[in-house]
Amino acid sequence: MTTNHTFQQLIQTFPEQDTIMPVLFIGHGSPMNGIEDNVFSNQWAAMAKSIPLPKAVIVISAHWQTRGTQITAMDFPPTIHDFGGFPEPLYEVQYPAPGQPELAAFTKSIVHATEIGLDHEWGLDHGTWTVVRHMYPQAQIPVLQLSLDYTKATPFHFELANELQLLRRRGILIIGSGNMVHNLRMLNWQKLEQPGFAYDWAAEINAAFKSFIQTNNNNALIHYEQLGTAAKLAIPTPEHFLPLIYTLGLRNNTDDLFFFNDIAVGGSLTMTSVKFG
């Protein structure tokens, strides 16, 4: 059984590489981006071509919240259609990427902040497959998900991500998938077809988030509740913001910084994404 592999065996399975993989935070937006050929999905595809081919991908998706931290550990994770009210073609999509139980076990072995559970029930939700199917359409690269422990405060997630940094040196691409500004209750549905429209508060806080990222002010982002009314409107619940916190925890001091898909949608959602490294 993979879970019985020794740490030394797992280290040999995932040897250190000459290059360090980048880290991505991706604003995934509507599930429809998973099947549409648009500015967002085109940029995801272009990003995949601009970085080294990973040995595997681990995604921290806003849409998998658990008590305790879990990582998918099955050989073939199912495609999850965790949404409602969309056109039938979206529900017909399957993304048959393999899993990699050995990587799940290795990830579990290097984390000390918490006990990571090996999950055999979940799969790839739309925070993962809608993005990754554009990046790696042949589904040949193993894809895993790491859950968000909803019982933990924001600093825990940053510290956990620190422990995952060595995966970057072993050919693993880690993606945080959420949205920096994500308030669906305030979405202006009439202006969804006008990319770039943002309420004043959304534009203000998104610019502030970018500034904090540029100046490496992790503390301000970890304690986003202290940033005032605009932050409270942008992050009514934390699950879409926490994947950004993971990418900040995975960042190192030598990483280059590149923003992409820096566009607001419907007034109260931003697709702003960032590449570290």
UniProtKB/TrEMBL annotation:
Pfam families documented for this protein: LigB
Superkingdom, natural source: Bacteria
UniProt xrefs under InterPro entries: Extradiol_dOase_DODA, Xdiol_dOase_suB
Domain spans labelled Extradiol ring-cleavage dioxygenase class III enzyme subunit B: 42-251
Protein keywords: Dioxygenase, Metal-binding, Oxidoreductase, Zinc
Native source species: Hydrotalea sandarakina
Entry cofactors: Zn(2+)
Keyword Oxidoreductase among record annotations: yes
Name this protein carries in UniProt: 4,5-DOPA dioxygenase extradiol
Gene3D superfamilies, alphabetized: LigB-like
Protein family (similarity comment): Belongs to the DODA-type extradiol aromatic ring-opening dioxygenase family.
Keyword match Ribonucleoprotein: no
One of the record's GO molecular function terms: ferrous iron binding
